[in-house]
Each structure stands twice: as structure tokens, then as C-alpha cells.
């Protein structure tokens, strides 16, 4: 669906449940985005597929173009309770520090502000997640408010078109 020099982003499906569980099983990853059982992952991925159908966007699997390996996820998520579209990114730890999150997120932002016509995109980052905070800063996000997401405090960052 979306491509960059190094990455391909495709919609996540319930077929990605095993990979999703594995990604979130890492303690450093799960610390900020939680851990999932297979049943929980399947439910979450079903919801993502439904969002693609209803809103025309959702979260994507991020694959290396050279090998096809799935290394993370990045995409847009609609939060009904906030009436906001959020960009999110999560990558497997061996792929941290290579610029993949920034590269994937730039492609998603271009898509969101371009063809999707969004006026504002938020990024909800749990306290202490310095890696994601740095990615948000590189992309031009600025703090909007403090909030609670998934029962944990976070800073909500925003970027306007």
C-alpha cells in the first residue's frame, strides 16, 4: 500500500496474530504498548481490519522491502472517545535505532494529510517512552495535552496539516 526507499506498509489482518503476539511479548515493547494473548491479538486485529473498512485507514505491518521481513507496525488509528486520528508506531527491538519508525511515520503522515485529507494527527505517547518521543519531535509534533490511554498516563502530541 505505502512504500518508502526501505519499507513497505500493508494493512494488518487477523493473519498477523502470531507475529503481533511475538512483537508484544518483548518486555521493552510491551512496557509501552502492552502484551497480548493470541485471542486478544486476533480481536485487536479484527478491529483494525474493521477500521480499514469503515474509515479507509488503519494500522499497517511494516516490512523490509529487501527481505519481506515484518519488523513493526505503523499507521493511523481512530479513537472514538477523543474524536482524533492518531499515528502510532511500534517496532521489534532489533530494528530500533535504524530510522525505520521515522521513515514509516513520514509516509503515513503524507498519506494522512494528502489523500486522506486529515487536518490534524495526534500521537499518544506513554510517559517514559523516550524513543517514541524523539520520533515525534523529529516529525514536528508538539505537546497538546496530558491524558490517559489504556489506563496509563500519556502525553498527546499533535501535528497540523
From TrEMBL:
It holds the Pfam family Acetyltransf_3. Transmembrane segments: none annotated. InterPro entries: Acyl_CoA_acyltransferase, GNAT_dom, N-acetyltransferase. Keywords: Transferase. SUPFAM superfamilies: Acyl-CoA N-acyltransferases (Nat) (SSF55729). GO terms for molecular function: acyltransferase activity, transferring groups other than amino-acyl groups. PROSITE patterns: GNAT. Residues 7-161 form the N-acetyltransferase domain. This is GCN5 family acetyltransferase.
Amino acid at each position: 500500500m505505502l512504500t518508502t526507499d526501505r519499507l513497505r506498509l500493508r494493512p494488518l489482518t487477523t493473519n498477523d496474530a502470531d507475529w503481533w503476539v511475538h512483537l508484544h511479548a518483548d518486555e521493552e515493547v510491551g512496557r509501552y504498548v502492552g502484551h497480548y494473548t493470541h485471542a486478544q491479538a486476533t480481536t485487536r486485529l479484527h478491529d483494525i481490519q474493521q477500521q480499514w473498512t469503515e474509515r479507509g485507514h488503519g494500522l499497517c505491518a511494516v516490512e523490509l522491502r529487501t527481505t519481506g521481513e515484518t519488523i513493526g507496525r505503523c499507521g493511523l488509528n481512530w479513537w472514538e472517545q477523543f474524536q482524533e486520528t492518531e499515528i502510532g508506531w511500534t517496532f521489534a527491538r532489533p530494528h530500533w535505532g535504524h530510522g525505520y519508525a521515522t521513515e514509516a511515520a513520514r509516509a503515513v503522515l503524507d498519506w494522512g494529510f494528502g489523500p486522506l485529507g486529515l487536518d490534524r494527527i495526534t500521537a499518544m505517547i506513554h510517559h517514559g517512552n523516550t524513543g517514541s518521543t524523539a520520533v515525534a519531535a523529529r516529525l514536528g509534533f508538539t505537546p497538546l495535552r496530558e491524558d490517559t490511554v489504556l489506563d496509563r498516563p500519556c502525553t498527546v502530541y499533535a501535528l497540523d496539516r
